[in-house]
Design goal:
mainly alpha; Arc Repressor Mutant, subunit A; 6 helices; elongated
């Protein structure tokens, strides 16, 4: 995900795959990075993600439990927004993207645009 390091993205994937708040140990046990990680490393990553507002945390007993602050889809949409804004010519990028979408994606976009213009 744009704006995240590899380990941050792996931690976010763990959190996105569950509906329940997770403790650091839970996240560590579910991570599959191909290398052993220290508990304190995962704790630091979760603290950084909290500071960046990617996750929320709640103290339960003596340990924080972490949940995502946005869905994977919301994060992807924000990343697209950042790409558009950073491009220097967002209109042109958006038009190129619109020409590349499938029929199904085109219908989804059309329906979303119609729904957004129907709002008061």
């Amino acid at each position: 995900m744009r704006g995240l390091g590899d380990l941050e993205a792996a931690v976010m994937n763990v959190l996105w795959l569950t509906t329940e708040p997770l403790k650091v140990r839970d996240v560590l046990d579910r991570l599959d990075t191909g290398r052993p990680l220290a508990y304190t490393t995962v704790m630091t990553v979760l603290d950084n993600l909290h500071r960046k507002s990617w996750v929320r945390r709640e103290m339960v007993g003596k340990a924080y439990r972490y949940t995502t602050s946005r869905s994977r889809e919301e994060a992807a949409a924000q990343a697209l927004r950042e790409v558009l804004e950073a491009s220097g010519d967002p209109d042109s990028v958006l038009l190129h993207f619109a020409r590349s979408v499938s029929d199904h994606e085109s219908e989804l976009l059309r329906a979303a645009l119609e729904a957004s213009t129907d709002r008061p």
